[in-house]
Amino acid sequence: MADLKQASKNNYSSRGEKATVEEINLASLQRIADAAEKMCLDREKLERDYQYMRKSRDAYRDQLERMARKYAAQKGIVTKLKKKLAAL
After folding, report:
1. pLDDT surpasses 80 at 6
2. Is residue 66 classed as helix, strand or coil in its secondary structure?
3. For residues 15-34, average pLDDT
4. Mean pLDDT, to the nearest integer, of 8-35?
5. Helix or strand or coil: residue 18?
6. What's residue 3's pLDDT?
């Protein structure tokens, strides 16, 4: 079959004679099917990468929110201690 796929590109078969129209059409369809399978693999990889990036984004966003709350709490403690110090 690989010879017929090449024949659909070159219009020659492995027998050294011209391939029939049916053989060329069959090989062309096989090449199209191979290309479609390759596109599916690429799409699956893109989807996996997308899911990974989305999870990473969410994890970093959560970490940022935790750090912001922690910073705000520490800032409040500093303000509270300054008021106590000023009251002395």
Report:
1. no
2. helix
3. 78
4. 72
5. coil
6. 66
* Segment (H or E) for 34: helix 21-87
Q: What digits encode the pLDDT tens for the residues 47-73? A: 999 999 999 999 999 999 999 999 999
Residue 33 CB coordination number (10 Å): 10
Q: How far apart are CA 37 and CA 79, in angstroms?
A: 63
What is the rounded CA–CA span in Å between residue 35 and residue 57?
33
- In three-state secondary structure terms, 11 is coil
Please report the pLDDT score of residue 12 as a whole number: 47
- Cβ-proximal residues to 37 (8 Å cutoff; 6+ apart), any chain: none
Residues 6+ apart with CB under 8 A from 19: 4, 7, 8, 11, 12, 13, 27
Q: In sequence order, which residues have a C-beta less than 8 Å from that of residue 14 and are 6 or more positions away? A: 3, 4, 6, 7
